Amino acid sequence: MRILVTGGAGFIGSEYVRMLLGVPGGDAVGVPAVEPSVVTVLDKLTYSGNLGNLAVVRDDPRLRFVRGDICDPVLVDEVVAGHDVVVHFAAESHVDRSIVGAGPFVTTNVLGTQTLLDAALRHGVARFVHVSTDEVYGSIEQGSWTEEWPLSPRSPYSASKAGSDLLALAYHRTHGMDVVLTRCSNNYGPYQFPEKVVPLFVTNLLDGGTVPLYGDGGNVRDWLHVHDHCRGIAMVQDKGRAGEVYHIGGGTELTNKELTARLLEACGAGWERVVPVADRKGHDRRYSLNIDKIKTELGYAPSIPLDDGLARTVRWYRDNRAWWEPLKTPAPVAVG
Ligand SMILES: NC(=O)c1ccc[n+]([C@@H]2O[C@H](COP(=O)([O-])OP(=O)(O)OC[C@H]3O[C@@H](n4cnc5c(N)ncnc54)[C@H](O)[C@@H]3O)[C@@H](O)[C@H]2O)c1
């Protein structure tokens, strides 16, 4: 099977590539036997893409890397040809950056997805896996979203992802293309660009610095280790039904304050290292996914308990300063 992974040099895409090629960041147990003969990574290497994320699989003869933009129709047409499956991760992914400037989000997330879908349609790709986020639903006070929940995105990031989700589903309904969607909760783990809350806090704490906590710290997120996200995507790639959306979540909801307490403890630091900062504009209060569908249809369950996953993650950042130190200068634009 020839698999094209867009955004495969980013945080989650690179874990997917490592997993496909047999060097995952978590246990290989429970990973479906998707056996690739070729894994092509198409990645623009924006600020968050990094070839270092693929260093452990660099010498695998099945890996091909193409540096390029998913918005470039000529290149995309050339690269998509000959692949059986496209797994689409490439995106502008940071909410705070989308508040500062939405343009690249609309371009990459909407136009880029449409460019890929068109090429996949032209070349008769057998399956297109579109990777999305719980943020497309907005914010929920109580209960959990099911896959049928109406979309109500509230940030330019989530609005652009919702646009790409609707396009992907439209290609299924209009053209009969085999498209499957995943929507996942907040990921943490190794190789995450240190602008997102977990690696930002961990690397600041390891450097003896402070960490900025938004607002009252009461915003709730459901946390999932990146490896468990990728296991879920592989199951959907393998056995998901065409035209369907599958939620992938961890079932471990924490307020940002609770997450901060765990990270402080894991790094051996106290609350004096926390600096409250003004809340993010339009900050969604709570995200919560119902994951019954992927559990019952595909037998998915997260495998890495949060405390274990956070401990492993802190250890990874402690042991891999050479990976993140160059990424901390100049300072990332904001936290989140
Ligand atoms: N991080 C999370 O918690 C999370 C949760 C749910 C869903 N997602 C989704 O998962 C996907 C991957 O997220 P991530 O956290 O790994 O993001 P990331 O920012 O770490 O990686 C994105 C990758 O896409 C590449 N890229 C960006 N624009 C491109 C373009 N125009 N052409 C080609 N490549 C381009 C970047 O170079 C980078 O390698 C995204 O679609 C995101 O919406 C992320």
Describe this structure in words.
This protein is α/β, with parallel strands linked by helices. It has a domain at 2-187 and 224-248: 3-Layer(aba) Sandwich (Rossmann fold). It is 37% helix and 17% strand. It has helices at residues 11-20, 73-80, 95-100, 103-122, 156-175, 197-206, 226-239, 256-266, 292-298, 306-319, 321-324, and strands at 2-6, 38-43, 63-67, 85-88, 127-133, 179-184, 186-188, 211-214, 220-225, 245-248, 253-255, 274-277. The strands form three sheets. A seven-stranded parallel β-sheet has the order 3-2-1-4-5-6-10, sandwiched between helices. The chain binds nicotinamide-adenine-dinucleotide. Residues 7, 9-13, 43-46, 48-49, 69-71, 89-93, 108, 112, 131, 133, 161, 184, 186-187, 193 line the site of nicotinamide-adenine-dinucleotide. Residues 7, 9-13, 43-46, 48-49, 69-71, 89-93, 108, 112, 131, 133, 161, 184, 186-187, 193 line the site of nicotinamide-adenine-dinucleotide (NAD).
Uncertain segments: none
Q: CATH topology of the domain at 2-187 and 224-248, what is it called?
A: Rossmann fold
CATH class of the domain at 2-187 and 224-248: Alpha Beta
Q: Distance N terminus to C terminus?
A: 37 Å
Instruction: Sum up the overall morphology in one term.
Output: globular
Count of strand segments: 12
- Biggest sheet, spatial arrangement of strands: 3-2-1-4-5-6-10
Largest sheet properties: 7 strands, parallel
In round numbers, the mean pLDDT is 94
CATH superfamily of the domain at 2-187 and 224-248: NAD(P)-binding Rossmann-like Domain
Any idea what the radius of gyration is? 19 Å
Tell me roughly what share of residues is in helical segments: 25-40%
Number of helical stretches of at least 4 residues:
11
Protein name: dTDP-glucose 4,6-dehydratase
Family: Belongs to the NAD(P)-dependent epimerase/dehydratase family. dTDP-glucose dehydratase subfamily.
Organism: Micromonospora solifontis
InterPro entries: dTDP_Gluc_deHydtase, NAD(P)-bd_dom, NAD(P)-bd_dom_sf, Sc_DH/Rdtase_CS
